[in-house]
């Protein structure tokens, strides 16, 4: 099953969209920071320039803005709006490695995090970036690592630690939050943080890429249809504490994605917390609806305090 095709249909293709617009830009007062000093490693040619689209399909009463053809990955830093806790979270939007749901699974998450005293770093990683087999760079499949995207995430983690003092961040309290394909990237960085994928560029690449905690929201690519665990995610005791949320009626990726990952974490004695809801489907983000699943952020807040990433 091509998960990215289903995700693409669910967010954009199955509903009408407004015309393409120019390159995505953050709100006033925020600047995109390039991840790489030059051409990104393993750069692939794009079919055209970066562009955004706004879908008329509403989630939580609002449309969804997507970004496509990202060849120059960036991060945007959002400072806490309340008392700074020293904690930072790199936010990773989903989109099936074809596009990025930049508001639903990006800026919306930053609004929540910064209101809790957390520095949010929004990652705009390279897409399309279809997962491929790392060893041979051959045909794509749903369990392979999304190498260019993972390179971007490794680089982001290292840059955040490198600038921790400047950004008033505790270098031991830097986590990751990802949705759908972004949730798979969270699993990738949680288990492949020390895998050398690119040649070091500068002093920032001496920093660790390991997250101190990880949050996966309706992740995909973790398990096969017959519940076999993805062998490209080598879980060890070094895998960070993990928080999982998924709906039982998620028919895009399937609730077994979280179940299989949680079971693998438990076998390795990695602290983990999982929340499953009866209803919610896929790609609900943080937007409030009548469904209980849209209040998952309250549970995440408690979990962050439980593991010592926020004050109790």
TrEMBL record:
GO terms for biological process: proteolysis. Residues 157-290 form the Peptidase S9 prolyl oligopeptidase catalytic domain. It holds the Pfam family Peptidase_S9. SUPFAM superfamilies: alpha/beta-Hydrolases. Keywords: Hydrolase, Signal. It comes from the Bacteria. The keyword Signal applies. One of its GO terms (molecular function) is serine-type peptidase activity. Residues 1-19 form the signal peptide. This is Alpha/beta hydrolase. It comes from Rhodanobacter glycinis.
